[in-house]
Amino acid sequence: MAAAARVSLRRRFPAAALGGACLQACRGAQTAAATAPRIKKFAIYRWDPDKTGDKPRMQTYEVDLNKCGPMVLDALIKIKNEMDSTLTFRRSCREGICGSCAMNINGGNTLACTRRIDTNLNKVSKIYPLPHMYVIKDLVPDLSNFYAQYKSIEPYLKKKDESQQGKQQYLQSIEDRDKLAYRWMIDSRDEFTEERLAKLQDPFSLYRCHTIMNCTRTCPKGLNPGKAIAEIKKMMATYKEKKASA
Amino acid sequence: MERFWNKNTGSNRPLSPHITIYSWSLPMAMSIGHRGTGVALSAGVSLFGLSALLLPGNFESHLELVKSLSLGPVLIHSAKFALAFPLTYHTWNGVRHLMWDLGKGLKIPQLTQSGVAVLVLSVLSSLGLAAM
């Protein structure tokens, strides 16, 4: 029985894109051959821009956890492959580093590929796109504003004297590398600190932060952006503004 | 960024749900509480000022009015507690905010600890003030 299940699964999954998920599902099928199915419900936000008059709605899918990988992304891929191929979401590395599968799962913003499915079968897993963003389709938000904001902070090293470029590795002390939390400001190799701080000198860029700390709570990589922003605010209060505007 | 706004506000794209679906946490709730108590306190002070200016009689006469209603001590005590709580909560949470501005206590476990400490202190000081 287990062998038959394995063969049928292999035919359904195209090997190229989903080798990883296929292998996991195969292993799952083998061990689960003798046990009862564990059905988990997923309520997923759906909206189709091409269907006129369509309103955002929740659609429920049932997935047998014995035949599915442990992460929410595994469930989404399984649903897309076997139940509803119109389900749309972003994904890429499936290992928690690229950030493509960011979405709101059971009320918290995380990556679907690193969030384990809650195995409590009495609860429905609720999946929404990232909150308060324009929805392109189903779980895909419009991130262009976010990218524009990232571009505006100039996320690259800037040195006053570029003539030394490429000659030697720019060295840093161990203490310097420890502080890479608030990246570009305190990177000792970057010499534009004062200009970067001056750019934030308006009521919106930095000061919309009210230290609610949801950012640190939800970070799937364990970073502390709340603290970094607090440190930037401290730097804003103490740097010499005359130097930058001169 | 302007292109983003023009494109999206002109389209029929929905905005993904936010406060209806986000799971609540203690720091988040306390932050809203800080704003709420702040607004309430401001309104209270303004109302007090306006009343002093516009209502007839002085403070003593209004105090006598409340005394003449002969409300039970439990009700009086609860009312005093309800008036004192926003003040104490906002004050203690304000201290917590000032610590954050110094860059201290911004790790998640510290957030929960300081949050609970603020709540306990607020309740105790409100009880203390109401008992006076």
From TrEMBL, chain A:
InterPro entries cross-referenced by the UniProt entry: 2Fe-2S_ferredoxin-like_sf, 2Fe-2S_ferredoxin-type, 2Fe2S_fd_BS, Beta-grasp_dom_sf, Helical_ferredxn, SDH/FRD_Iron-Sulfur, Succ_DH/fum_Rdtase_Fe-S, Succ_DH/fum_Rdtase_N
An annotated GO cellular component: mitochondrial inner membrane
Transport is among the record's keywords: no
Cofactor(s), names only, from the UniProt record: [2Fe-2S] cluster; [4Fe-4S] cluster; [3Fe-4S] cluster
Cellular localization per UniProt: Mitochondrion inner membrane
Molecular function terms from GO: 2 iron, 2 sulfur cluster binding; 3 iron, 4 sulfur cluster binding; 4 iron, 4 sulfur cluster binding; electron transfer activity; metal ion binding; succinate dehydrogenase (quinone) activity
Keywords, sorted A to Z: 2Fe-2S, 3Fe-4S, 4Fe-4S, Iron, Iron-sulfur, Metal-binding, Oxidoreductase, Tricarboxylic acid cycle
Reaction it catalyzes: a quinone + succinate = fumarate + a quinol; (R)-malate + a quinone = enol-oxaloacetate + a quinol; (S)-malate + a quinone = enol-oxaloacetate + a quinol
GO biological process: respiratory electron transport chain; tricarboxylic acid cycle
Span of domain 2Fe-2S ferredoxin-type: 40-133
Entry keyword annotation includes 4Fe-4S: yes
Family: Belongs to the succinate dehydrogenase/fumarate reductase iron-sulfur protein family.
Subunit annotation: Component of complex II composed of four subunits: the flavoprotein (FP) SDHA, iron-sulfur protein (IP) SDHB, and a cytochrome b560 composed of SDHC and SDHD. Interacts with SDHAF1; the interaction is required for iron-sulfur cluster incorporation into SDHB.
This protein's name: Succinate dehydrogenase [ubiquinone] iron-sulfur subunit, mitochondrial
From TrEMBL, chain B:
GO terms assigned for molecular function: electron transfer activity; metal ion binding
Pfam families registered for this protein in UniProt: Sdh_cyt
Binding locations of heme: 90
Cofactors demanded by this protein: heme
GO biological process: mitochondrial electron transport, succinate to ubiquinone; tricarboxylic acid cycle
Pathway(s) annotated for this protein in UniProt: Carbohydrate metabolism; tricarboxylic acid cycle
Stated role: Membrane-anchoring subunit of succinate dehydrogenase (SDH) that is involved in complex II of the mitochondrial electron transport chain and is responsible for transferring electrons from succinate to ubiquinone (coenzyme Q). SDH also oxidizes malate to the non-canonical enol form of oxaloacetate, enol-oxaloacetate. Enol-oxaloacetate, which is a potent inhibitor of the succinate dehydrogenase activity, is further isomerized into keto-oxaloacetate.
The protein's name: Succinate dehydrogenase cytochrome b560 subunit, mitochondrial
Species in which this protein is naturally found: Pipistrellus kuhlii
